[in-house]
Amino acid sequence: ETQYATHGYAALKVTTAHEFFHTIQFRYLYNFDLSWWMEQSAVWMEERAWDDVNDYLAYLHHFFGGSIGNETYPEYYKVTSLNENYPSNFKYGAAIWAMFLAKRYGDSQIRTIWETLRDSSYPHIADFDKAIKNNTSGASGLPDALNEFAIWNYFTRERANTVDFYSDSDRFNVAIDSDFFWSYSPASDSIGIKNLTSRYVELLFVGNWDKNDILKINVIPHNTQLYRSSVVFFNDPYDYEIQPVTQQNTELILSKHWNRAILVTSSAELLNNTSTFTFETGMIPGTAVETAKPYVFDLHGAYPNPFNPSTTIAFSLHQEEQVSIRVFNAQGQKVDDVFSGDMTAGEKYVLWKPSGQAAGVYFIMIQTPSLSKTTKVLLLK
Q1: pTM across the whole model
Q2: How many other β-carbons are positioned within 10 Å of the β-carbon of residue 365?
């Protein structure tokens, strides 16, 4: 009990789950070079078996870094690849990688990874790309998963969103910090990103700008093509937009006032090296908005709110798109699937009439292949 944060019967719970899962892993294979994944997925099993214990929270500072009490810890997520075994406690904090994979793609993703590693002639994190692509969710592989993982890690602590991202994110005692800041007016700089890590750059909105202005982003890699970039537009944890930077000179319409914009870039290089990037930003006045690609949809909210017995979700699609509408409770558990399918462009109104749900706060999430937006509602009884 002098070594570990969790004591008593709760400690016995997570220890048995962790060690028992190791015996399962040994039936697949044993490879010391994979001990990082053995430990990450064993910590995931602790949380999967005993969600009420949350022992893993005590190790997050070994991944995120930052200050806890009088102690300051390095930001290992910037300099330590996900598949490294040292520093020794990094892999326990990095267990949120396994937690992300399971919540994003389903518990079966963990099994698929182990099966893929077992069948590989040279088991390595490169096999994760194949395992993620084999997921029935249609996931696009390791580079995209790494970038989305980095975005999830931004939504923690004071930026916690327990519906769209980690269900315990409001309990994280550490969080991501941006590396440095650029002005929203034309600016450029360079940065190095170690393999299998991510970096965050905050873009400062300087001067007068309009919702129809366009943010121009240019990410230029110098010694890699295995990377992904996205911009997180942020007002609060439940008012945000995530836009992928899919090509050089990507143009993103602001669409509304945003307090913050964060460029997230992830390197999916497998070799132990550092990739260098040049980043360029600029602003295009709103008069050019008609030539740029519009957002896929705008979420207008739900009315009435508070409500009983039903509420109408209002949103508009700018193009025909596949849409899913789901409802989550305050604990981040899905309670209803309202709609899933294709919709034509235009104004949309979808009714949600709860069946058997208790009074309280719920989160309605509308998702397309490229965007996710959430609105909060209150059910009265």
Answers
A1: 0.79
A2: 19
